[in-house]
Amino acid sequence: MPSHVLLDFSWWVLALQLGAAIVISAFAAAALLSLSLGRSVLRPRFLVAEGVIGGLGLMTAAALPDYAPGDSHEYWDRQRVLTGRV
User: What's the whole-number mean pLDDT along residues 26-48?
Assistant: First the structure.
């Protein structure tokens, strides 16, 4: 894979989104396993809640590259091109 592709933020956003989905799915699977072992309902509920919070944290990190750091001219130039205000 060329190095310029790794520097593109869209690939990192995709990786973080997939990571968040895996985290949420893993905690949900752990909750189902805990529930099937006959434990109380409270522990699986907390496991799912903890997984959702962790996954949403990763999704927040994935959304951060969409915001411009300070006065990045490249960001604003790209926004002008995307909105048609060149």
Answer: 90
